[in-house]
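Two proteins, back to back. First:
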Amino acid sequence: MKLCIVTHSVVKGNGQGRVNYEIAWEAIRRGHRITLLASQVAIELEQHQQVEWIQIPVKGVPTELLRNLVFAFNSNNWLRKNRSQLDLVKANGAITFAPGDVNAVHFVHGSWLKFSSTQQPTSLSKLLNPKQIIYNFYQWFYTSLNAIWEKQAFAQAKKVVAVSNKVGEDLIDIGVAPDSVQVILNGVDLEEFIPGNRNRQKWDLPADKPVALFAGDIRIPRKNLDTVLHALVKVPELHLAVAGITEGSPYLELATSLKLSDRVHFLGLRDDVPELMKAVDFLVFPSRYEPYGLVVIEAMATGIPVITASSTGAAALVSPEAGIVIPDCDDVDALANALHTIANNPQIREEMGKEARIIAEKHSWHNMAKTYVDLFEKIN
């Protein structure tokens, strides 16, 4: 089979890139030839004899919206000329104007647009500066366009793959035919994310206090750090490590206004999250809208409990024995109770962490990739 994967990057370093990286290797193991329409490809794939990389350069193009448009236009042109030489095209959302046989959906912009129009946090409004207001408008505009483009892309696909049951429900909600939807959960690296010793010196985290971790984009309200900070006020014994880009984030000021500066540790964007997860006691991630949330399964693989919300796709993996799922992501009291329960019970944390690891072991990247390629071969 001649398989073409259309995606911005095929590397280990990000969620969608890692999914396509693992799919590529599974296809190679089965003897298929692969064309990668991408801006960035891992060198070990680029140099493989079964792989052809068609580079779609977008470096230097300002804003993500314009980069995506350039990528969509150029990839469409290449596919229009070369589609007859391919057996199957795998696209990712509205990444290209060309139709894909299989479209893997990591985020449903239409669902987020609908949700965000009725669920906007008010606690940050007085902290937003003009630059942040402009950024929020740009995000809304970007999401609105993608909501239109993705519906067209999904309608053209023979099979639409949802990365969680939540995404599957969202796809049906925006009009995708139920019989065309298949759920394939994202995986986790079980060798990179493993239980280990909790040495906190590298991050200057307190050695004698319970420490929770929040990891995600803290420049936007979707990840819901504001509710975490308000809940933290009610749990004075707990410290919080925050991994995410701090530039342009309103949450540093919010933490100061809530008198949490001595207990909230803003660590910036990290490339050592696997080690950081070993150093903390549990993850807190009650995202307002999260199609999957790799950070959840990564924490579980590390052997730490998870507190999340039902609005997070990966919450379906978090059994009561492995963590706590709150029904309402914005319920400060419920979140505070969950934080208090896990922060003050080392034995519960240990038991939940062991169960979390057991669950994660069922969801390796290899198992995920096999399911994708099985689907490709069935369609082809």
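And the second protein:
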Amino acid sequence: MVCGAFAAGGAGFTSAKPVWPAGREQEKNLLVGFRAAVDAPPNGSVTLRVAAASIYRAWVNGEFVGHGPARGPHGWFRVDEWDLSGHVHPGRNLVAIEVAGYNVNSFYLANHSSFVQAEVVSNGSILAATGGTGSRFEAAILTERLQKVERYSYQRPFSEVYRLKPGWDAWRRDASIRIARVDCADQPGVNLLPRRIPYPDFAGRRPLALVSEGTLTPDVAPAKIWRSRGLVEVGKALSGYPENEIERLPSRELQYFAPAGNRRLDQNLAGPAQFKFSPNSYRIFDFGTNLTGFPGATLTCASASRVYFLFDEILTDGDVNFKRLSAVNVIAYDLQPGSYHVEAIEPYTMRYLKVLVAGGECSVDGIYLREYVNPDVHNAHFASADPRLNRLFVAGRETFRQNAVDIFMDCPHRERAGWLCDSYFTARVEPRLSGRNVIE
């Protein structure tokens, strides 16, 4: 059975049905984990097909596979097909999918009730699916990402605030780890489309330099509290959680830290490095250019700690101003003693990353950004005797690859919106860089 309509030339789902935890498909900012143990065949490919609302991230045996979906027109959902052959090993494997259902209006994602539709196939056989034949995906509510938080911006859904304990991600690495399973209900069938465009480039990028380090004095009341538009305008026109329901408000917490000392370093970084942070200290890292993707690192805490990732495209008076674009450029982690590998589930744009540790001592190891960009940009080459023109070409290509991962966007950070006026110009660039115009 093929679920939903499908455009000519595409292949839909053989077995899977759209599902979601029963009765919770309209809930705002709910993160749900789906997983299935599958036996990889000795020969042949293994493919994960997945469509979802609002966003998803896929793993095999704890290893990152992909992020999606590619966006489509209102009422239609594109099906991603991830080749798992390089991720599975002989015998039992664990396929896991995290799905964030936002259920709010935004410029970035269509407001649609939450669902996931997924199946793992090999040699024509269904190994696992959300419904139908094969092993059934089991589901659990993932409470480590706090649900009642402020929006990231007026234009995009929710910011990321986490409360983690050791072993928080074991559910997606080890099938023997029990999860608090919830029952899922079939959701109404959705209209499906093939992806049609290249899969993103997820290359890892490391910071090139350590800009500065410093200390902060906590609990210093600011003269005025900044409140984002995505916080104060929640109501009938803008969906979200009202301020009096929000559980954690990092954008406010950070305004109670006052600078106590700063040391400019401008130190080149040759590779991954570990940095030890004392309570109420920070460091600012430079990736060398604006990048768009998912920041991550390994955080190890000897005592309970609160860690913030603050980011921006420029430095303001030598510092990272997370409020500059009227967005909440902050990812917050509350950590119990232990070691954690963390990575944002939403893409952000930054050149500078400020890591701030409040509370206990903490070490931060292997900072990186996993890119989320268009890979199809290297068919064109340019070189001239004028280095300024060469820089312009490189900057233009970098701008395109970050703004054309699935649709033509106005910007890859605050809005991620598909403004048609912007696309009029961006669409002219696509065939010149890639030799084709598949996104257009």
